[in-house]
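User: Predict the structure for this protein chain, please.
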Amino acid sequence: MKAITGYMVSYIKRTDYVLWLLCFAMSCLSIVLIAGILDTNFTDSLRLTRRSLLTQSAATLIGMILAFILSMIDYRDLARLWKLYVPACYLLLLFSFFLGVGTLDRPDDKRWLIVPGIGFHFQPSELLRSAFIVVYAYHIYKSREDINNPLCLLGLFAHGLLPVLLLYFQGDAGAALIFAAIIISMLFCAGISWRYIIGATALTAVSLPLIWNYILDEFQKERMRGLFFPTAEDLQGVGFQQFRAEVALAMGGREGRGIFNSSHIYIPEMHNDFMFSFLGESMGFVGCLFVIAVMLVIWFKILHSARGATDLLGCIICVGVFAMLSFQSIINIGMNISLLPVIGNTLPFLSCGGSSMLTSYIAIGLVLSVYMHSEKSMFE
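Assistant: Here is the predicted structure, written as structure tokens:
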């Protein structure tokens, strides 16, 4: 027992315990919020059960264990061993194209695989995010001397385009955008020339009409129109979720109506993509500010780990995790307050979903690995 206690004390001294506490606090709040939604009288419409609460709790526990294990492994060794896990993540994603299933509330979205025996649904695209951050950071690190060589940059572009295209063809535009944000942030951190950045920005601006006419489907266009040019029909159709979310946030006022209040406003996916609106109704403007402040501190701690990394590889890994969590949070909150269209992104550490929770903790485990390993790898 003394040995275990001594080891844990040593680990706490070496790790970023503030980051641990903040992530755990957000996870606990998530479980409480899900319990509050279960206390309402419309959980049948959400297909939310007590099992969802158990799944979220189990995902939090397993995620923390995985984060602890990853934090103890040198991130440089994780990068070198990418062949052990990256192909498996891509294989699972490809399986979802043929064996994927939708959930009860999303029957047409074949993005989930079922774990045999326990019936647990998970999204392979979620697991791929952290694996991609590591392998893409390793690719950039190995190419750091020639990062602005056109051929080298073309290889990096092709590498990054692979998951984006796979997710686009799967119909998961939200996940594809997250990957794009990760890629852009990591390349920027690696020191890509401004001429490429300006050129890519200009090309994107010129391509907007083509994206609107040939890439976005009609439903996505309706959501965009409903956001910026809403009509009465939109408020009962594609804009119904965001309209109800605005009402819920307004009803919450300054201090909220309480989490365990059976008279909460019904919002489709309020336990998932629209958890922030339930938070606002339950805990008010003060609660929303508190959660955003915690998120900002988490992001700051991740960037602090990036700044303290002893090599470019560790720095880029942390930047990739920062891009993933921050961009995902900004999109989700933007959806909830009707500043951005609904594209189906969860709020890290808060939204109900085992895959999302596991992915968030795995990403934090990578950051902690960078934070805790300043010495050379055992392979060197």
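Residues 204 and 211 are 9 Å apart (CA to CA).
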